[in-house]
């Protein structure tokens, strides 16, 4: 069975993406961060260990080899790759995790060999990665999740009652100026 990586991103447009970050560090700096992170993810698109697809919002910005995220809340949009991609395990990541590596993605796929789900917990209570094995793909656990809160991971895990779940290393996504400054301090 083929492994599938879904990379979720907002098309980088001045004044439209990373709004909380832009409020804190300025629109141009937020756009530069967003573009740099997307460029950093492109090698993952060509990794032979999995097939990778960009899932873009807004849909009109999707290129010929990309998929639009579609309508709905974050949970509804995140469920689409799990339901639409061909058979095999699916791992979904965002484009705002600067310390994410291909090694993290590979660790997630390896964890799905013995588990139904895998999460990369974020320092803010959410998660930077979610993966579902073939048995769980048609029932993504994203309903009733308080997105962008410290409860997002806990809300999602509650829906996986009885499933075997693995967790990877905790990383930080960059949503606010405080996140951005903390990342810059860690990385010099």
Overview of this structure, please?
It contains 6 helices and 7 strands, in the order E-H-H-E-E-H-E-H-E-E-H-E-H. It has a 7-stranded mixed sheet with strand order 3-2-1-4-6-5-7, sandwiched between helices. The protein has helices at 19-25, 27-45, 74-84, 102-111, 152-158, 177-187; strands at 4-10, 51-57, 67-68, 90-94, 117-121, 127-132, 165-167. It is globular and about 45 Å long. It has a single domain (4-187), classed as Alpha-Beta Complex (Spore Coat Polysaccharide Biosynthesis Protein SpsA, Chain A), CATH 3.90.550. The model has no long low-confidence stretch (mean pLDDT 94). Strand 5 (117-121) and strand 6 (127-132) form a beta hairpin. The protein is an alpha/beta fold and 188 residues long.
The rounded distance between the terminal residues' Cα atoms is: 41 Å
User: Which class of secondary structure composition applies to the elements?
Assistant: alpha/beta
**Rg computed from alpha carbons, rounded to a whole number of angstroms:** 16 Å
Spatial strand sequence of the major β-sheet: 3-2-1-4-6-5-7
CATH class category label: Alpha Beta
What share of the residues lie within helices? 25-40%
What oligomeric assembly is this protein in?
single chain
Q: Helices, strands, pairings?
A:
Layout: E1 4-10, H1 19-25, H2 27-45, E2 51-57, E3 67-68, H3 74-84, E4 90-94, H4 102-111, E5 117-121, E6 127-132, H5 152-158, E7 165-167, H6 177-187
Parallel strand pairs: 1-2, 1-4, 2-3, 5-7
Antiparallel strand pairs: 4-6, 5-6
Helix pairs in contact: 1-2
